[in-house]
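Below is the data:
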Amino acid sequence: MPAFASRYRFVCDAAGADILDAVARHGERVLHRNLFSSLLTVLVASLSLDAFRAREAAAPEAVAGYSVGQWTALYAAGVVDFEQLVGLIVERARAMDACFEETAGGMSAVIGVREEALERELASLRESGHAVFISNINCVGQYSIAGTLDALDRAEQRISGLRPKKLVRLPVSGAWHCPLLAEAEQRFAAVLARVRLASPRLPVADNVTGGWLPEAPDALRATLAAHLTRPVRWRDCVRTLIAAGSTRLVEVGFGKQLSRFGIFIDRQVEFSTTYD
Protein backbone atom coordinates (compact mmCIF):
# COMPACT_ATOMS: atom_id res chain seq x y z
CA MET A 1 0.00 0.00 0.00
CA PRO A 2 2.74 2.60 0.76
CA ALA A 3 4.20 2.06 -2.72
CA PHE A 4 0.79 2.56 -4.30
CA ALA A 5 0.02 5.65 -2.24
CA SER A 6 3.28 7.41 -3.05
CA ARG A 7 3.21 6.52 -6.74
CA TYR A 8 -0.45 7.41 -7.04
CA ARG A 9 0.20 10.85 -5.54
CA PHE A 10 3.08 11.35 -7.96
CA VAL A 11 0.88 10.36 -10.91
CA CYS A 12 -1.95 12.67 -9.82
CA ASP A 13 0.46 15.57 -9.36
CA ALA A 14 1.72 14.97 -12.89
CA ALA A 15 -1.85 14.79 -14.23
CA GLY A 16 -2.95 17.88 -12.33
CA ALA A 17 -5.94 16.00 -10.92
CA ASP A 18 -6.92 13.24 -8.52
CA ILE A 19 -7.83 10.67 -11.16
CA LEU A 20 -9.86 8.29 -9.01
CA ASP A 21 -11.74 11.21 -7.48
CA ALA A 22 -12.55 12.40 -11.01
CA VAL A 23 -13.88 8.93 -11.83
CA ALA A 24 -16.02 8.94 -8.68
CA ARG A 25 -17.51 12.33 -9.57
CA HIS A 26 -17.88 12.00 -13.33
CA GLY A 27 -18.01 8.28 -14.06
CA GLU A 28 -15.82 5.89 -16.00
CA ARG A 29 -15.93 8.05 -19.12
CA VAL A 30 -13.11 10.02 -17.48
CA LEU A 31 -10.89 7.02 -18.18
CA HIS A 32 -11.40 7.53 -21.91
CA ARG A 33 -9.15 10.58 -21.62
CA ASN A 34 -5.77 9.65 -23.01
CA LEU A 35 -3.73 11.27 -20.24
CA PHE A 36 -5.62 9.58 -17.42
CA SER A 37 -5.82 6.15 -19.02
CA SER A 38 -2.13 6.21 -19.97
CA LEU A 39 -1.01 7.21 -16.49
CA LEU A 40 -3.17 4.60 -14.77
CA THR A 41 -1.91 1.94 -17.19
CA VAL A 42 1.74 2.52 -16.36
CA LEU A 43 1.00 2.99 -12.65
CA VAL A 44 -0.77 -0.36 -12.30
CA ALA A 45 1.67 -2.18 -14.57
CA SER A 46 4.75 -0.85 -12.76
CA LEU A 47 3.35 -1.86 -9.36
CA SER A 48 2.35 -5.28 -10.70
CA LEU A 49 5.79 -5.74 -12.25
CA ASP A 50 7.60 -4.86 -9.03
CA ALA A 51 5.37 -7.23 -7.03
CA PHE A 52 5.96 -10.01 -9.57
CA ARG A 53 9.73 -9.54 -9.39
CA ALA A 54 9.65 -9.59 -5.59
CA ARG A 55 7.97 -13.00 -5.42
CA GLU A 56 9.48 -14.76 -8.45
CA ALA A 57 12.79 -16.58 -8.16
CA ALA A 58 13.58 -16.19 -11.86
CA ALA A 59 14.06 -12.73 -13.35
CA PRO A 60 12.58 -11.85 -16.77
CA GLU A 61 14.95 -12.50 -19.66
CA ALA A 62 13.19 -10.14 -22.08
CA VAL A 63 10.19 -7.81 -22.02
CA ALA A 64 7.53 -6.36 -24.29
CA GLY A 65 4.70 -3.89 -23.83
CA TYR A 66 1.56 -3.12 -25.80
CA SER A 67 1.09 0.48 -26.99
CA VAL A 68 1.67 2.76 -23.98
CA GLY A 69 2.68 -0.41 -22.16
CA GLN A 70 5.90 -0.40 -24.15
CA TRP A 71 6.96 2.33 -21.75
CA THR A 72 6.38 -0.01 -18.82
CA ALA A 73 8.63 -2.49 -20.64
CA LEU A 74 11.30 0.22 -20.83
CA TYR A 75 10.87 0.77 -17.10
CA ALA A 76 11.31 -2.98 -16.59
CA ALA A 77 14.49 -2.89 -18.67
CA GLY A 78 15.93 -0.01 -16.64
CA VAL A 79 15.80 2.51 -19.49
CA VAL A 80 13.74 4.94 -17.36
CA ASP A 81 12.93 5.16 -13.67
CA PHE A 82 9.38 5.68 -12.41
CA GLU A 83 9.62 9.48 -12.27
CA GLN A 84 10.95 9.63 -15.84
CA LEU A 85 8.28 7.18 -16.95
CA VAL A 86 5.46 9.34 -15.63
CA GLY A 87 6.92 12.56 -17.00
CA LEU A 88 7.33 11.09 -20.47
CA ILE A 89 3.84 9.62 -20.45
CA VAL A 90 2.44 13.08 -19.69
CA GLU A 91 4.40 14.63 -22.57
CA ARG A 92 3.39 11.79 -24.87
CA ALA A 93 -0.31 12.14 -24.06
CA ARG A 94 -0.28 15.92 -24.49
CA ALA A 95 1.44 15.64 -27.85
CA MET A 96 -1.10 13.05 -29.00
CA ASP A 97 -4.15 14.95 -27.76
CA ALA A 98 -3.05 18.14 -29.50
CA CYS A 99 -3.40 16.41 -32.88
CA PHE A 100 -7.15 15.99 -32.40
CA GLU A 101 -8.14 19.35 -30.96
CA GLU A 102 -9.59 20.46 -34.32
CA THR A 103 -10.30 17.21 -36.20
CA ALA A 104 -11.70 14.36 -34.12
CA GLY A 105 -10.34 10.87 -34.58
CA GLY A 106 -11.16 7.43 -33.25
CA MET A 107 -10.53 3.71 -33.49
CA SER A 108 -12.46 0.52 -34.16
CA ALA A 109 -11.74 -3.11 -33.37
CA VAL A 110 -12.04 -5.59 -36.23
CA ILE A 111 -12.18 -9.32 -35.53
CA GLY A 112 -12.48 -12.22 -37.93
CA VAL A 113 -11.23 -10.82 -41.24
CA ARG A 114 -8.04 -11.40 -43.21
CA GLU A 115 -5.39 -8.71 -42.82
CA GLU A 116 -4.89 -8.48 -46.58
CA ALA A 117 -8.61 -7.93 -47.19
CA LEU A 118 -8.79 -5.32 -44.44
CA GLU A 119 -5.81 -3.40 -45.77
CA ARG A 120 -7.22 -3.53 -49.31
CA GLU A 121 -10.43 -1.82 -48.18
CA LEU A 122 -8.56 0.82 -46.17
CA ALA A 123 -6.12 1.51 -49.02
CA SER A 124 -9.06 2.08 -51.34
CA LEU A 125 -10.51 4.62 -48.91
CA ARG A 126 -7.15 6.39 -48.56
CA GLU A 127 -6.94 6.69 -52.34
CA SER A 128 -10.26 8.55 -52.13
CA GLY A 129 -8.87 10.95 -49.53
CA HIS A 130 -10.17 9.28 -46.36
CA ALA A 131 -7.55 8.90 -43.62
CA VAL A 132 -7.92 5.45 -42.05
CA PHE A 133 -5.21 2.91 -41.23
CA ILE A 134 -4.52 -0.41 -39.52
CA SER A 135 -3.24 0.68 -36.11
CA ASN A 136 -2.88 -2.57 -34.14
CA ILE A 137 -2.02 -6.06 -35.36
CA ASN A 138 -2.83 -8.11 -32.28
CA CYS A 139 -2.97 -11.70 -33.50
CA VAL A 140 -4.37 -13.62 -36.44
CA GLY A 141 -7.74 -12.08 -37.33
CA GLN A 142 -7.66 -9.42 -34.59
CA TYR A 143 -6.92 -5.81 -35.53
CA SER A 144 -7.69 -2.21 -34.72
CA ILE A 145 -8.06 0.60 -37.22
CA ALA A 146 -7.65 4.33 -36.65
CA GLY A 147 -8.68 7.42 -38.56
CA THR A 148 -10.86 10.48 -38.69
CA LEU A 149 -14.43 9.86 -37.56
CA ASP A 150 -15.80 10.25 -41.08
CA ALA A 151 -13.20 7.83 -42.44
CA LEU A 152 -14.02 5.34 -39.70
CA ASP A 153 -17.71 5.49 -40.58
CA ARG A 154 -16.88 4.72 -44.20
CA ALA A 155 -14.41 2.01 -43.24
CA GLU A 156 -16.92 0.27 -40.99
CA GLN A 157 -19.42 0.20 -43.86
CA ARG A 158 -16.81 -1.40 -46.13
CA ILE A 159 -15.61 -3.86 -43.50
CA SER A 160 -19.16 -4.99 -42.79
CA GLY A 161 -19.12 -6.43 -46.29
CA LEU A 162 -16.23 -8.69 -45.25
CA ARG A 163 -18.55 -10.28 -42.67
CA PRO A 164 -16.36 -9.80 -39.58
CA LYS A 165 -17.12 -11.69 -36.39
CA LYS A 166 -17.00 -8.39 -34.53
CA LEU A 167 -16.72 -4.74 -35.52
CA VAL A 168 -16.99 -2.19 -32.73
CA ARG A 169 -16.01 1.43 -32.17
CA LEU A 170 -13.54 1.76 -29.29
CA PRO A 171 -13.96 4.22 -26.39
CA VAL A 172 -10.80 6.23 -27.06
CA SER A 173 -10.24 9.94 -27.57
CA GLY A 174 -8.12 9.86 -30.72
CA ALA A 175 -6.74 7.90 -33.66
CA TRP A 176 -3.69 6.35 -32.07
CA HIS A 177 -0.76 4.68 -33.84
CA CYS A 178 -1.37 6.10 -37.28
CA PRO A 179 0.03 8.88 -39.53
CA LEU A 180 -2.53 11.39 -38.23
CA LEU A 181 -0.14 11.76 -35.27
CA ALA A 182 2.76 13.04 -37.38
CA GLU A 183 2.93 16.33 -35.47
CA ALA A 184 2.88 14.44 -32.17
CA GLU A 185 5.80 12.32 -33.35
CA GLN A 186 7.84 15.46 -34.04
CA ARG A 187 6.87 17.07 -30.74
CA PHE A 188 7.63 13.95 -28.72
CA ALA A 189 10.93 13.48 -30.56
CA ALA A 190 11.97 16.93 -29.32
CA VAL A 191 11.07 15.90 -25.77
CA LEU A 192 13.05 12.66 -26.03
CA ALA A 193 16.08 14.53 -27.36
CA ARG A 194 16.35 16.29 -23.98
CA VAL A 195 16.01 13.13 -21.89
CA ARG A 196 18.77 10.78 -20.81
CA LEU A 197 17.75 7.18 -21.50
CA ALA A 198 19.80 4.44 -19.88
CA SER A 199 21.00 1.43 -21.85
CA PRO A 200 18.47 -1.44 -21.64
CA ARG A 201 19.41 -4.16 -19.16
CA LEU A 202 17.01 -6.53 -20.91
CA PRO A 203 16.04 -6.96 -24.57
CA VAL A 204 12.81 -5.06 -25.31
CA ALA A 205 10.53 -6.12 -28.16
CA ASP A 206 9.60 -3.20 -30.40
CA ASN A 207 5.98 -2.42 -31.34
CA VAL A 208 7.14 -0.53 -34.44
CA THR A 209 9.11 -3.30 -36.18
CA GLY A 210 8.08 -6.35 -34.20
CA GLY A 211 11.79 -7.04 -33.66
CA TRP A 212 14.01 -5.70 -30.89
CA LEU A 213 14.25 -2.08 -29.86
CA PRO A 214 17.64 -0.63 -30.80
CA GLU A 215 20.07 0.03 -27.97
CA ALA A 216 21.91 2.98 -29.55
CA PRO A 217 20.46 6.14 -27.91
CA ASP A 218 19.64 8.08 -31.08
CA ALA A 219 18.07 5.08 -32.79
CA LEU A 220 16.11 4.26 -29.64
CA ARG A 221 14.74 7.81 -29.39
CA ALA A 222 13.74 7.83 -33.06
CA THR A 223 11.92 4.53 -32.72
CA LEU A 224 10.08 5.62 -29.57
CA ALA A 225 8.88 8.77 -31.33
CA ALA A 226 7.86 6.80 -34.42
CA HIS A 227 5.83 4.53 -32.15
CA LEU A 228 3.09 7.18 -32.17
CA THR A 229 2.51 6.98 -35.93
CA ARG A 230 3.15 3.29 -36.62
CA PRO A 231 0.88 0.31 -35.99
CA VAL A 232 1.46 -1.81 -32.90
CA ARG A 233 2.80 -5.12 -34.22
CA TRP A 234 2.00 -7.14 -31.14
CA ARG A 235 1.79 -10.46 -32.97
CA ASP A 236 5.35 -9.98 -34.22
CA CYS A 237 6.60 -8.86 -30.78
CA VAL A 238 5.36 -12.11 -29.25
CA ARG A 239 6.90 -14.13 -32.06
CA THR A 240 10.21 -12.34 -31.48
CA LEU A 241 10.15 -13.28 -27.79
CA ILE A 242 9.38 -16.90 -28.67
CA ALA A 243 12.08 -17.05 -31.35
CA ALA A 244 14.58 -15.89 -28.72
CA GLY A 245 13.71 -18.89 -26.56
CA SER A 246 10.88 -17.66 -24.35
CA THR A 247 8.61 -20.50 -23.26
CA ARG A 248 6.65 -18.66 -20.54
CA LEU A 249 5.16 -15.22 -21.08
CA VAL A 250 3.64 -13.47 -18.06
CA GLU A 251 1.24 -10.56 -18.50
CA VAL A 252 1.57 -8.00 -15.70
CA GLY A 253 -0.88 -5.22 -14.95
CA PHE A 254 -4.63 -5.03 -15.34
CA GLY A 255 -6.55 -7.56 -17.39
CA LYS A 256 -5.82 -10.66 -19.43
CA GLN A 257 -6.24 -9.46 -23.00
CA LEU A 258 -2.64 -9.92 -24.11
CA SER A 259 -2.65 -13.49 -22.83
CA ARG A 260 -5.82 -14.11 -24.87
CA PHE A 261 -4.05 -12.74 -27.96
CA GLY A 262 -1.20 -15.13 -27.22
CA ILE A 263 -3.41 -18.18 -27.60
CA PHE A 264 -3.95 -17.17 -31.24
CA ILE A 265 -0.24 -16.52 -31.83
CA ASP A 266 1.41 -19.69 -30.51
CA ARG A 267 -0.34 -22.43 -28.53
CA GLN A 268 2.95 -24.17 -27.68
CA VAL A 269 3.95 -21.39 -25.26
CA GLU A 270 2.64 -20.84 -21.73
CA PHE A 271 0.78 -17.56 -21.30
CA SER A 272 -0.18 -16.46 -17.80
CA THR A 273 -1.17 -13.28 -15.99
CA THR A 274 -0.69 -11.66 -12.60
CA TYR A 275 -4.28 -10.37 -12.72
CA ASP A 276 -6.95 -12.27 -10.77
Observations:
- The chain has a mean pLDDT of 95.
- The longest strand covers residues 132-139.
- The chain has two domains: 2-99+179-247, 105-169.
- The beta strands are 105-111, 132-139, 142-148, 166-169, 248-251, 270-273.
